Amino acid sequence: MHTLFKSLIAQTLLCIPLLACASSTRLDTLLAAEQAPAGVVIEIVTGERAGLSWALPQAQLYIKKLRQRFPSIHIAIVTHGQEQFALQKKQHTKEKKVHSLTRSLLKDDVQLHVCGTYAEWEGLSKEDFPEYVDVAAAGPTQVNDYLALDYKLIIIKRRENK
Known about the structure:
Blueprint: H1 2-20, H2 27-32, E1 39-44, H3 52-69, E2 74-79, H4 96-107, E3 110-115, H5 116-121, E4 134-136, H6 139-148, E5 152-156
Parallel strand pairs: 1-2, 1-5, 2-3, 3-4
């Protein structure tokens, strides 16, 4: 019962950004704009433990295209589904590619946030994640904070080639 309750709450929280804000923006729409937006927040919610292995390269491709068009654009990534747990310190060896991509994002001035609330529900704390991962209080709130700064939202929620 307790696990079912946690699952229902998690699913509800994962949907909050979709309910609380305008729909996400397509990458091609952003690239066609005459002016850069204030920034872009890429939200990743795959529901797959291995989701970051394909979602981060997808985000990296988006970032490359955005930076080619708007070199100084501010970009952040928020991940708050099952995929965020690949970023735990103890997963570093098993998820070497994901951790390496995350560190390279920081070098490119892209902040990556995970959901602290969801981590807590799984018995994890900020200390369970490396210093290059920001543990936000709540992923959906972090997305909404960026939207309040007039960032545009791009959502990655499933494999593009599925």
